[in-house]
Specification:
By secondary structure, this protein is α+β, with helices and mostly antiparallel strands. It has 4 helices and 10 strands. It has a 4-stranded mixed β-sheet with strand order 1-2-4-3, with helices on one face. Helix 1 runs parallel beside helix 4 and helix 2 runs parallel beside helix 3. The longest helix has 20 residues.
């Protein structure tokens, strides 16, 4: 089974993640940040991941620690659930429209963490979610999971639409990368390892 359970407790946050890579996209997310819950639920749905994520954090300070630490723990769970990555497609891409917004996502489960975030989006809040924290979430996810991730906005003005396209696009691309390859059972690399 491609599953993982990770718990992390710091002086700022306490986070529990249960992840099943072979799910149907069912998610139960509770972070205390409504828009973030919505984005993580959409991410899981478009990746066909079953996800339970519970987080409590120092939201009286701001949302930064909770959002970034969720990326850390989700990334750790993804790395553990993937194992040696034998038999997966490894690469995924998506072009995700959301009304006037269009976001392109490409990723590689390469064990070479890197984030390119080219998402021009005006500063501000979407609900209780600071726009700049989307980049911090995806950076933490990429670093902890070993993911090379490119996210680029091609068009869009509405912050909600842009961020939702980014989360859904990342989910879609990840779901494609995690698919089992029926033609090749080894690790998809000329090196033989990732």
């Amino acid at each position: 089974m491609r599953e993982a359970c990770i718990e992390r407790k710091t002086k700022e946050t306490e986070i529990r993640v249960r992840l099943n890579l072979d799910g149907t996209g069912e998610a139960q997310v509770k972070t205390g940040i409504g828009f973030f819950d919505h984005m993580l639920t959409a991410f899981a749905r478009f990746a066909y991941l079953d996800l339970i994520l519970e987080a409590s954090g120092d939201l009286e300070v701001d949302a930064h620690h909770t959002i970034e630490d969720c990326g850390i723990v989700l990334g750790q769970a993804l790395r553990e659930a993937c194992g040696d990555k034998a038999g997966i497609e490894r690469l995924g891409e998506a072009l995700l429209p959301m009304d006037e917004a269009l976001v392109q996502v490409a990723l590689d489960l390469s064990n070479r963490p890197y984030l390119v975030w080219d998402v021009g989006c005006s500063d501000g809040m979407v609900g209780e979610f600071p726009v700049e924290m989307a980049e911090e979430f995806f950076r933490a996810l990429a670093v902890q999971s070993g993911l090379t991730l490119h996210v680029r906005k091609l068009s869009g003005k509405n912050r909600h639409h842009i961020l939702e396209a980014a989360f859904k696009g990342a989910g879609r691309a990840l779901g494609l990368a995690l698919r089992q390859n029926t033609r090749y059972r080894g690790i998809l690399s000329t090196k033989g390892v990732l």
